[in-house]
Protein 1
Amino acid sequence: MNFYIMTLFPEMIEQGAKNSILGRAIDNGIISLEAVNIRDYTEDKHRKVDDYPYGGGAGMLMQAQPVYDCWRAVEEKIKEKRGSKAGAKTRVIYLTPQGKTFHQEMAGELAKEEDIIFLCGHYEGIDERALEEIVTDYVSIGDYVLTGGELPALVMIDAVARLAPGVLHNEDSAGEETFYNDLLEYPQYSRPEQWHGKKVPEVLLSGNHKKIREWRLEQSEIKTQRWRPDLYEKYALRKKLMEKLVKKNKALYADMSESLGRGRGELIYGGEDGAVVWDKKADVYMLSSFDKASAEKIVDQIPERIKDGQFILHEEWLLPPMERRFPVKEKMMCQRAVYNRDVSLPRSGEIEILQLDISWLPVISAHYHLGSEGYVEERLLSGAIFGAFIEGKLAGFIGEHIEGSLGMLEVFEEYRRKGIAAELESYMINLHLSRGHLPYGDVIVGNEASMKLQRKLGLKVSKEIYCWAIVPSDAAL
Ligand code: 6GU
């Protein structure tokens, strides 16, 4: 990930970024940062970059020419580096108190970019004509006025860079923290066990991970309610719906409650008559209409701009209004299997199960037919596919789907009837339990082999049938 900062004060950027974790990530080559001096591009013989605003008013304005030429040079550099891979125009973020307020989700969005250009203003602003030609995003870091865009650029770079893979060593640590779930972080303690007469809470010394998780959640809730009632309100709404879904039908609605509970689902609508959850990571809409009369209204909760995608319809009566609005191309009828207990499943120990890396792409793609090669590639890169090895040879694999369900199970012909599928699934169930997740999977109606396996491992299979509805993007044209 590469950051380019157009500024009149390059040392300020360099000084600000060279220490701490950000500095380490730069040294390790995980991210790169280049401060470009706008003044180097002025055509003025006195190296002047500002002038009085037409029409009068306080202060000076940065002129269009040096800003524009500086941007051209940066763009040129990026194009050269990308070569034939040149894609869409590089995002150019203008730091200004008039911009949209920066937040965690925006950081997540920007972390997907390969290159980002920041434009730091000074004086009273920049000539509008240059902004019109180069800026893609106007961003502020809060409702107060600073003397320039350098500190805001550093703030944004810090927040975005730490989300890039490999910047934080513990892959999990970017997920489970403040704002991830509309909850503030729980309090933390390190040695010594007693300090200033205060003891570390007993539960943290217990070694009981379930109890610790529960205590931390409770502390987060208390803290959020006290200090950020605005966030707490959002959280409480979601929690209430989750509890309702679990009470109504834990198996059928496991996808929705888990998406919300794992902090990846956004509650688009939640009422007495149904709910719509958007799983941000998988970009899947999950719909539920508790009574037939509300079906139309529930489908209407899907934002207007959505023209295609994947939808999980939990009740059959959602299908007619869905098909009136979207050209549904494919319907996959499923039943839900959930593992309701919190005890791990036993493992034989004879079969080795390992996370598969990207080098397995050809093998997995050749055997997995319910998704594209691109999907398998994404899953492998996310570390979501695991293989069973017998005498060092891959005998089969299992995965976690992008929306969080267990699946992609396949045992190669010559290794069947040896209990490998059960081993793989037990492994995944235990893994999900250790993360505090409810293990669940989708079983395609009529897949008796899978049904039998689920029951054997103690999963409960819903009698209700739900529908995966797929609306391909070209059908929208
Ligand atoms: Cl992005 N720029 C300036 N100058 N002041 C700010 C800001 C940006 N965000 C908050 N205050």
Protein 2
Amino acid sequence: MGPAIGGDGQASARSRMALSNVRTGLAPDAIAVALIENLHCLQGKRPRDATPNDWYMALAYTVRDRMMERYVATVGSIAEETTDVKAVAYLSAEFLTGPHLGNGLISLGIWDAVEEALSRVGQDLSGLLEQEEEPGLGNGGLGRLAACYMDSLARLNVPAIGYGIRYEFGIFDQSIRDGWQVEVTDKWLRFGNPWEMVRSEIAFDVKFGGRTEPYHNAAGRYCVRWLPEKVIKGVAYDTPIPGYRVPTTNLLRLWKAEAVESFDFEAFNVGDYYRAVDEKVLSETISKVLYPNDEPESGKQLRLAQQYFFVSCSLQDMVRLLLMRGKPLDELHSYWAAQLNDTHPSIAVAELMRLLVDEHAMEWDQAWAITQQTCAYTNHTLLPEALERWPLPLFARLLPRHLDIIYEINRRFLDELRLRCPNEEQLLRRLSLIDEAGDKYVRMAHLASLGSHAINGVAVLHSELLKRTVLRDFHLVSPEKFLNVTNGVTPRRWIALSNPKLCTLITRHIGDRWLANLEDELRRLEPLADELEFQRDWQAVKVDNKRVLARLIKDRTGVIVDPHSLFDVQAKRLHEYKRQHLNVLYLVTLYNRLRHAGGAVTPRTVIFSGKAAPAYRMAKLIIKLVNSVAAVVNRDPVVSQALKVVFLPDFNVKNGQRIYPAADLSEQISTAGKEASGTGNMKFAMNGAITIGTLDGANIEIRDAVGQENFFLFGLSAAEVELLKAEGYTPRSIYESNPELREAIDLIRSGFFSNGDRELFHPLVDSLLTYDEYMLLADYQAYVDCQERVSNAYSDPNAWTRMSILNTARVGHFSSDRSIREYCRHIWKVTPIVSDERES
Ligand code: 26Q
């Protein structure tokens, strides 16, 4: 299949609509006129009165205008009777898109023209790019993955809608006070959002609470009616997602919660104005704020309400679009592929059943077949504590009809299994959608697995472990559902936009097709890895990027760092399994060595960046530890010659775009078997950083791709971690037998980094010595030794640069275009169009 849009379609659309050149023209002249007109008509300003934000808004609308023809054509292919394409619905509670402006310019190919137009009106593009407040509608990896996938879907001309929530407040802004994380509300909508279009006419009612009631319809069929306690309205807000130099522009459709009008009127009519307003406020809380935890907290009713809210709106919208196209409901799975981004949207399985059976009077068996063929589930975690489950009483209160439906799905599933595997009551209990071991829970991963035709992990190791651990029993009964799709990231944002100098250098040598075809084209850099002149140019780009980051570090933290030192970076969410504190143990060791011995070393700047979940005390304590060690190291006149430590606050997409291009060394040091994939590891490698890492997640595949000689490997494998756990792991014996480790831990414990306070880091030290769940001590010596190899390697700039070039040249596989092609082929059964004649 393929969308029925192309160059011709656009030309005729243009003649039909007769859009003016001011709205569509791509030359600097037209863009300059558009800027002034938008400033006048939309901002109500003359150039001389305009603020930087006015100019940003005028530019954003100018760019958005230039997306609209393609957008209208693509939306038409999902909504009009004349087309037969299958579209993808990517259901995700998070979309961490990052700023839209720069990305739009790259996709449309109008970067230079806009720069030129702006200079004619006395403005500067880089300043306006800075103005954009990024939509922080995600926590980290999972939300950013959804954004990369939306970029690639559009690039590959696959019609798609990303469905999610328009949080009024996204992930908090992080500031650091006295070394501690402080959370600041993210008011991203404060100055308006020029990229979204509110679709007041696209709105759906969503029911909550109340009770259910059986009845027989006119035809005598047994039916169930849901009498809700409350109804809330979801309104669509659409953001165009332009594909890189192709005719497709998809959309991100985010739902905002509002009160249904009838509620206001009812209360208002009886004179209770305040109650009406209260209702409104209460309704709107559903899409108010993103939960800032990347792990479920049991019992948060509002979170379940958010999930159901956006899933219900999205499925109702998909049905609406199908019927608009004149297709029968029993062909839903032929026209829609719904991807569940983790279990957060997994209530979709029950909701689709409800829509088909209750609202559209379909027979159960047919509805179930359609549901399974429509849905597919991506798992992102192996940590048992991160598996989503909802207490049964809470679930019953909020979604009584869905609980009925889940019971019925479960009953049929277990009955069928009983026939297939008699005398396996234990197995059945483990597979059940309901956990009845103690307090009862609904197991969302089971609901998602059962209701889907495909289940995938996000890296080879992760997919293998899934089959052996958290979804073992599902694999036993339905092995054919399981597959792996290793994550990927979009090279448009993570190379072209964030690292323009590298982009130019690469293009100068291998032409400009690589951004659209990373897998085949980027490896053409390989032969250049040994050329001295190319190495010099490569180094110059890296040092430039390091200077930019050094300035940012100076602005944000006051610390001055040397762009010629080794930039050693760990940027990701704070989590014990990611082991930022293993990095700190090495730093303290290095500090001790430098104090005692001095001597020649490779100067390093060690940079940390990342947010901690507000309630995750240990993660916040690790931030405090980093900052405490940084303060001591940076003020030591001798040590600071060779070592600087920085915590760069507020890691987000914008800051990431500055960090990845400036890194020499990428820290990917999670306990093997814990990081599902990682995607930062890919962004670093694409930008020529060399990885120091464990055999975890996608690190394994990255190492295979770049060659083991271009990767710093250390530590236990997942199997060894398991074995050691099983044998009985005693961290204290490692502490006692390793003098350097002991010295580092004792120094932290002594209050040396905390003004004599011996209590401050006690919880951290105590957890390492008594339990050490993530086995830092087991990997400590291997890590320290490996860092020595890194330092030695860095002291040979040409050899290092060669490794750096080969890293970039060989990571084309980790483009999200490759991932999306795999989803299309193996899960969604849609055929992306990749032929170049479709490029415009
Ligand atoms: C669930 C229920 C209630 C509240 C919050 C949540 C919640 C929210 C976010 C649970 C998990 C997340 C985010 C998870 C995440 O980002 N996982 C990462 O996904 C990446 C993309 O696949 C992987 O590369 C990372 O390895 C994985 O940790």
